[in-house]
Design a protein that fits this description.
6-stranded mixed sheet, MSTO1 protein, 8 strands, two-stranded antiparallel sheet, alpha+beta
């Protein structure tokens, strides 16, 4: 979880981290081909301690894909198999892909050809379906050489998944008893300031509440 602080407490911006390591792509595949094989859902996992949602919703995101060729697929004289294959650059292909999966979200995309190196002592927990360059192969092979590098897709996302995390944090902080924070307050923090910060945390959590989160909150309240 990354938090960027600005001048006012309510200007705090919180983002969740996602990653696909490695990004699943066949050796020699173009970026449009690789993205087309994941049209229903981005093949990344949530790294931040939030409860993951199936809903495809976010407010803004910054995504970086590295280790995949930026060359455009060669023309065969046939109609392009998808709009992704008509894009002028790799960045445009990734941008189009993100726009399709997250319509209405502000998305910033970057594509780098250099893969992520995985030299020792990087743990070799990779599937036998990966070759030493981190690309997928059709059949598993005996691991005779370490995976030297992998393509990676990573993103920072401002989305409703953060609402439950911030709400839970606010709930836990509320449970703290003032008598247990004697050393904390003796360091110069006024109890009134602490209570204001707790309230600002609650307000911050509400900034990330979307329709899905709101309905789930109501269901949780009814079950209580």
């Amino acid at each position: 979880l990354i938090q960027m602080v600005t001048s006012h407490p309510l200007d705090l911006q919180v983002v969740a981290a996602w990653a696909s390591l490695p990004f699943p792509v066949q050796q020699g595949s173009s970026l449009p081909d690789a993205l087309c094989s994941h049209q229903q859902e981005v093949p990344w996992k949530l790294l931040s301690p939030c409860r993951e949602r199936r809903a495809r919703c976010c407010f803004a995101q910054s995504v970086v894909l590295r280790g995949v060729s930026k060359e455009r697929p060669s023309s065969s004289g046939k109609p392009p198999p998808s709009p992704l294959h008509t894009c002028e650059s790799a960045e445009q292909s990734l941008q189009w892909y993100l726009h399709t999966l997250f319509p209405g979200a502000l998305s910033v995309a970057h594509v780098l050809e250099q893969p992520c190196p995985t030299p020792a002592p990087f743990p070799q927990f990779f599937s036998p379906l990966l070759n030493p360059q981190g690309f997928l192969q059709d059949k598993p092979s005996p691991r005779t050489a370490a995976v030297e590098s992998v393509p990676v897709l990573a993103g920072l996302q401002s989305s409703p998944v953060l609402h439950s995390l911030l709400k839970a944090l606010h709930r836990d902080v509320q449970k703290l008893k003032s008598r247990r924070l004697t050393s904390f307050f003796s360091a110069g923090v006024e109890e009134e300031e602490f209570q204001e910060a707790v309230e600002e945390l609650r307000m911050l959590s509400e900034c990330y509440e979307a329709g899905l989160e709101a309905s789930e909150s109501e269901e949780e309240g009814d079950s209580d």
